[in-house]
Each structure stands twice: as C-alpha cells, then as structure tokens.
Amino acid sequence: MNDEKDANVEQTVNKEPVTLSDIMRARFKGIVEPIAGFLNNIGLQPNVVTLFGLFGTVIGSVFLAAGQITLGGIIILFMAPIDALDGAMARLRGQPSSFGAFVDSVTDRYSELFIFGGLLFYYLQQQDWLGASLTYLAAAGSILVSYIRARAQSVGFETKIGLFSRFERLVVLIPCLIINQPWIAVGAIALLANITALQRILHVRRQAYARMSPRAKK
Questions:
Q1: Alpha carbon of 83 to those of 52, 77, 104, 153: distances in Å?
Q2: Which of 29, 152, 51, 162 is nearest to 108 (CA)?
Q3: Chain segment 100-134, per-residue pLDDT in tens
Q4: In this predicted model, what pLDDT tens digit does every residue of 131-163 receive, in sequence order?
Q5: CATH for 2-217?
Q6: Burial level of 2, CB count in 10 A (0-12/13-18/19+)?
C-alpha cells in the first residue's frame, strides 16, 4: 500500500505543466508546418536551418555590441522562429533524432550567450556597470535554467516548470531591444530567470524526496 501511495505521489510530482512554449507551438502549428514542409522539399536539412538561425543571431549580436540595439533586435526577431522550424522539419521527415535535439539545444544556448555577450560588450564600452552586471546575471540565470533541466534529466528527473523558460525570455528580450530599452529586459531576466532556476531546483528536490523510501524520509 505504501509503495502504491509513493508511486502516486511521484507521478503527481513528475507531471509536467503545459508551458507557454507548448501552447504557442500548438497554436501556430498550421503556419509552421507548411513552411517546414517547403524547406524540406527544397532539400534543406533541419540541422542546417538550426545553424543558419545561430548565424543570424550572431549577426544581430554584433549590432548589439556596436550600439545599434534596434537593428540587432529586429534581426534577432527574424531568427527566433527558426527554433520552431527545425524541429517541425525533423518531425515531418519522420526522423527526429537525439543528435538533432542535442544540436538544437546547444545552439539555443550559444544564441542566448551571443546576445548577452553583445549587450555586455555594449554596456562595458559605455562604462555602464549596472547594465553590465544585470546582463551578466541575466546570462547566468538563463544558462542555469537550461542546465538544471538537462542535469535533472541525466539523473532521471524532469523539470520544465518556472516563470522564465527560453520562450518567455525571448518574449521579453526582443521587444525591449527593438524599442532600444535593453536594460528593462536584462533586469527582468536577471531576476526572473534566477527565480526560475530556484523553482526547478526545488521541483527536482520534491521529485527526489518522493522517490525515497518511507524509512529514508523519517
């Protein structure tokens, strides 16, 4: 009976919420899949599209570093949907692979770091130490959010919860770049991404506690 109860508790804890990213992916499926199908038909590979998105983000980040914040934001805006296209292309091909998911995840991290790196360079050039500090904290929080999930998966847990996953970070970051107010974005991300990291740590802790034997819990 206790084993069954513990199993039910663990199942409840492990149940992942539907994220904003999941909702938007489902809502725009009718737009994304035709474009993904077209790219497949002209012979493009999903990983090539992923790397193209990274290259475009690097270009946008160079403009950020040069102080052309709005232009950099617009370029990054056009690169952002590619994150949905490569996965849709792989699914339509019937060949989603672990390596493809790995490449997608790694390029996502590189993309964010290039963006924050561009902003950090800009703030340092302006000798804006508050902006530079917030950018560093935003980058650290963003990477921790992803790292905690990856590390949790490696030991048998799953955690997608939190206020600021990558999609939410981009929703805040890109408009602020376009209106040339990056400090609002890096301030919000510095706070909320690190809160999200803490949420995920506590979520994994609850899952780990649910797996413990009744004797170990005492």
A1: 10, 11, 8, 21
A2: 51
A3: 778 888 999 999 999 999 999 999 999 999 999 99
A4: 999 999 999 999 999 999 999 999 999 988 888
A5: 1.20.120.1760
A6: exposed
Cα angle 127-61-137, degrees, rounded to a multiple of 5: 55
Residue 112 CB-half CA count within 13 A: 30
Q: Give me the count of residues in the chain.
A: 218
Q: pTM to 2 decimals?
A: 0.84
Other C-beta atoms lying within 10 Å of the C-beta of residue 131 = 19
Q: What are phi and psi of 206, to 5 degrees?
A: -65, -40
* DSSP class of 164: -
> Is residue 191 within 8 Å of residue 133, measured between CB atoms?
no
